[in-house]
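Hi there. Long-time user, first ticket. I'm pasting a complex I've been working with (about 266 residues overall). I'd like to know whether the download I got is complete or cut off, because the file seemed smaller than I expected. Thanks.
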Amino acid sequence: MEQAEIKFCSPEMEQTGLFWAPVQQEEQGLDDLFGDLQFTLASGTACELQVTRIATAVSIFRCSAWPPAESGWKSFQLVSPANSSTAEMCFIAMMENYRERDDDALFVLQLLEEADLDEWLSGGLHQSPLGDTMSNHKMEGKKSGRRGTRKRRISPWDTFVFGGTTLGRNREYITRKNNSRWTAKEVKLLVQGVSKFGVGRWSMLKEKYFKTSVRTSVNLKDKWRNLLRAYKENVQKYTLLDLEPPLVEQIRRLAAKHPYPKQRHS
DNA sequence: TTAGGGTTACGT
DNA sequence: ACGTAACCCTAA
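Hi, the file is complete. Here it is re-exported in full:
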C-alpha cells in the first residue's frame, strides 16, 4: 500500500529470503498492508509485493515477486505477531511451488517448531525464532525431494500456522490452500485490464497488469467468470466482497460488450 | 493457453 | 445446509 519502509537486519537473511523487518503499523491494523507493498532490501534492491491474504490471530501474507528473480524464490509468506501495533515481522520466503519443495518447507517448519513461535507471536521474543540457524541451511544445494503427482493439499505453512499441533490450540481454522480472497483493488485492476485487452487474453493481462502478483492467468480468468456470475444482471443472494457501484457498472458494461465465454473459433 | 466443468474452502 | 468464490483438471 503506502510504501512501507522496511529495513533488513542481516544480509544473510536476505540471501535465504528470510529476515526480520520492523514495519510501521497504522492504527487500522494489518489490513492496511493489503495490496501493493514497496520496500527496499538492505542491498538496495527495490521490491514490490502484493499482499493478498491476511488472517486473524496470526497474519499470513502471501506475496510474490521475490527478488532477485534468478534465485528461484518467487513468493513468500509473512508472519507477524498478533495485535502488535508496531509489528515486527518475519518474512519467510518460500517457493512458488512449495509442492515441489517440501523438504525445504519442512525444514524451516522444523526450525520454527524448535523455536518458540508461540512466545514470539505473543510478543515475548525480540529476535527471530530462527535466529541465524538459517545461514547453515543451503537452500540452493537442495534437490527437491518429492516427485510424482500428488493430490492437492494444504500448504505445510498453513497447516503449521493454523492447524498444526504447535499452534493449533487456539487457531480454529486452516487457511485456504492458496491465495485467498481477491481485494477490491485487485478486482479493479482486473476490470481495467479486461477493458483494455478484452476478454480472453489472460496471459497478456497477467503480463501487463499482474506481473508481480500471485494471481496466475488462470486465476484471472476464473475471477472474471466469478465476477460475471456475481454481477451480470444476475441476482446472487449475496457477495462476499462489496465493490463500488461504478466498478460494478463497468463490469456489467464489459460483460455486455465482450460475451463470455468468448466464441471459440473452429 | 483458454474455456469450461469439477472440486474444495469458507461465508451466511 | 447451502451458496459463493477460489482453485484444479484437461481437451482442444
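A couple of notes from our side: Residues 152, 173-177, 181, 200-203, 217-218, 221, 225, 237-238, 240, 260-262, 264 of chain A lie near DNA strand B (CB under 10 Å from a C1'). Residues 11-168 of chain A form one domain.
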